[in-house]
């Protein structure tokens, strides 16, 4: 069995003492970040990215991956205890989880979330190991036209999954693409949009854009209204669910895992979609739909499993195609490029240790999360009582150090401030930052593949529709766009997002 | 004030997108467009600027005749005033003053963004952050920062 020997290789890499250590650091940091509201995984990974340069590529990616799923996990703790999702994907958990906490079942809700996440994470990790290599084989057949169309689909998906106006999300994608154009043109070497600043010749620093648009803009938003948080800490008495509750959670966890695994693969933010989809399914299938919104166990178990499974399988497009499924994956691409690894189908054959090491570390990381976090819940709860005004100066200090250490470029720090302001203004205008970042990362790749495809086809634009894979992807993107503009779907989408905001 | 409903947020968003599109188009004027077979450096950016301009115009157009369902709310002026200059200050001084003093002042500036932060608490926090960061980043991870720069009479 090739799969088994590959997994053995992966576990060999991931269980070295150093990598276990970095996995643990990543998971702990991620949980910490996820628990603290007001700072998301995207911003954290962006800030920590520079620090990982000193590490081996495998270790750094293992740690970053750990932060990612640790944050998913920590986000649900916050969602349950203070009805404020630390991560957007745990927004759904807050609906029923917080109600459970108010009824004194906080412990059960937390344990359900942990067990569901662990189960889903294990299954999804296995799926990644199973499906990534064959998909890689498909990906190797991709030409410039296919890559272009696939990226178009990824961008369209991110638009469909953004909150609020579809038009604005589209505009954000295009703005991101334009910002990605800044720097030296790859074909001719002509400087573009650098305004004569030589420090921008390599393009805008990705870390600076991400920290500004996600991190600083979010701090500014939190500073609009400073208020105290209500923490549901009194009621964490019983952690482990009883036999009856176990029976209630099995089916939702299984369904959530299935939904999450499938949706996570889709580029554009599958994990968030997965938790919404799972919640809707559970509510439909439940014998007691009236319990939903009032503390239904299935409303925690299903979505939590779904979002963790989705978080895991969103590594598939990253590892096979080198295309990010969400902003965090975009950061992982940044990390790989900085380490000198070209993300894409060649990673699995050229860097098997890296590829399988990351996959194996995901499972180990998930195990660590369950083992560590159930006993540590008390500590995380204490952290929630740290006031925000103490946190954000620390975050700002870390931001400054992190961004500066990428290239020791002073202009990057000016860019952080600039993009922080832009991000804040855009968020005030109710424009979502995620499509912008995805556009920014994909911009150069999109342009390069477009130009290459056009040269290969001798200027014939029909190349995108005459090649079957490319045509299929473009038709799918068009279908998605049409769907989100249809009045009925639009109404439904609004409802789903309103529910999550409530 | 006109009585017709309009969505002020979307008007601003549309105008902002159009302005940014205009800026990129203007900056891209000097770039070679090339042909569609061999696209020059100016081709794709120009297409994107056009697209962004149209999207901005549609957002603007659709904002009229519809009330603003979610007003903008408060603006964190104090935050903008103190948070944004913090990284800029760090950038300007990290070489001259060195890592330790630059980070100390940066944290101190950022901490002023909240009304709740008392002066003494801010000072203590900045000292702690500076010491911890110096230990972790400079000594621990060995990032090549000068701890104290040439501007200081040391």
Automatic annotation (TrEMBL), chain A:
InterPro entries, per the entry: DUF112_TM (IPR002823)
Pfam families according to UniProt: TctA
Segments passing through the bilayer: 7-29, 35-53, 109-132, 144-162, 169-188, 200-220, 253-277, 315-342, 354-380, 386-404, 464-486
Tree of life domain: Bacteria
Keywords: Membrane, Transmembrane, Transmembrane helix
Domain DUF112, first and last residues per copy: 20-438
The protein's name: Tripartite tricarboxylate transporter permease
UniProtKB/TrEMBL annotation, chain B:
Spans through the membrane: 12-31, 43-63, 122-145
Classification via InterPro entries: DUF1468
UniProt domain DUF1468: residue ranges: 12-145
Keywords assigned by UniProt, alphabetized: Membrane, Transmembrane, Transmembrane helix
Protein name: Tripartite tricarboxylate transporter TctB family protein
Organism annotation: Paracoccus subflavus
